[in-house]
Every structure is written in C-alpha cells, then in structure tokens.
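Our preliminary data section would be incomplete without showing what the modeling component actually yields. Below, a chain of 253 amino acids is followed by its predicted structure, encoded as tokens that our downstream tools consume directly.
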Amino acid sequence: MVWFRRRYLFYLLLIIAATWWSMNMTGFEWRKLAQIPNIFEMISNRFFPVEWSLFPRMARESLVTLAMAFLGTFFALIVAVPLSFLAARNTSGSRIIYGSVRSFLSGLRSIPEIVFGLIFVTAFGLGPFAAVLAIILHNIGVLGKLISELIEAADDGPQEAMKSVGATRWVGHLFSIIPQIWPNILSHYFYRFEVAIRTSLILGFIGGGGIGQQLFNHFQSFYYTAVALDIICIMILVIFVDVIGGRIRARVI
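Predicted structure:
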C-alpha cells in the first residue's frame, strides 16, 4: 500500500513538473487572463453590425468548403477501409504487410494537411483541388488507424461462423467484421468530416479556396464585420454536418 501511494505521488509530482516546465516554455501567465474583457470590447465594437450583404457570396464559399471536406474525407474513407484490414493484426495475414501498412498510415498521419497543402498548391496552383488532395492523404492515415483498431477489437464469433460454412478468408472478413464495426466507422467518418471543415479553413489561408480564404482576406483587410459573417457561416456549416451525421448514425444503429 505504501509503495502504491508513493508511485502515485511520483506521478503527481511528474505532472506538476511537466506543467511548470510547459508554462515556462510557452510564456503562460495567469495574470494575462485579466485582459480577456478586451476581446469582448473588440468584438462588440468591430464585429457588429454583421455585413449581411455579403451573405450570398459567403454562402457559396461555404458550399465550396463543404465540398472540399466531403470529397477529402469520402475518398479517404474509400482508400482507408481496405488498407485498415491490412493494418490490423487479425486480418493482415503477414507481419511484413502489417508493419508496412501501419508505417505507411503513420507516415501519412504524421504530416499535417497544411504541409500537404503547401506542396500541392506549389504543384497544382491555387484553388480547392490542392486542398482536397491534402485532406485525402492525411485522413487516409487517420481513418486507416482508427478503423484498423476497430477491426482488431471485433468479435471472433462471426468470423469463425463464416469459416465454418466455407467462406474464403477475405469474404469472411468482409461479411463478419464490417457489420459489427459499421456504426463506429460512421462515427469516426463524420467526426473527421467536421475536422476537415475546420482544416479547409486553414488551407484557405494558403490559397486553398473556400470560406477559409475569404476569412483570411477579410482579416488581412481589417474587414471585421465581414469576419463576423464568415464565423457565422462556419458555425452553421459545422452544426449542419453534426445534425446530418447524427441522424444517419441513428438510422444505421
């Protein structure tokens, strides 16, 4: 019992030391939080009244952002599902394949979308196409890892039943595992869809198009009433995707 308490005391001291070190490294100071009222003053004085006259144009740019996020995550899901079977211990069939695919997914996942975006903007020029490719590659890595973990945690019973009726290995995997994990796949997909919308905004800062590029332009020109409209459109977009995703998940489950 004494050893148990000492171990958790050590963990507590380690967390405190890590927190103190991180605050020193980042210049985190509690007294600066007293300046938060300045934020509300800036918003009330500069962000209102909202520039509603730009709404038709911002609505179109929002649809561009929605299309970027959808294409990026949908194509990523199509590629990630088969790769995830190769990246799962119980379905890969070979340690070499398992290790190679896992390393490939880790490599894609470790590179942020903005890095891919900078490369593709240089190669293909400004516009949403480069942003879509960046979202696809990063999300292949993320979804591939998440789905492979779902596959590894799937119940073995249905797989054994498929083998007993003479199904081939891959047919057995397909019809015994996918039905088990499909609701969770959808949950991961719609979460990544929401993340991709926010990622599209950042990619807009480097010329990826959509409402993110408009948001960057408005900030650069100090057009804060238009920035307020951009933020409202972004919130509507994320809420819309969340509501639709929730209804689809409810029907599947």
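The two ends are 45 Å apart (CA to CA). The chain has a mean pLDDT of 80. Preliminary results of this kind motivate Aim 1 of the renewal.
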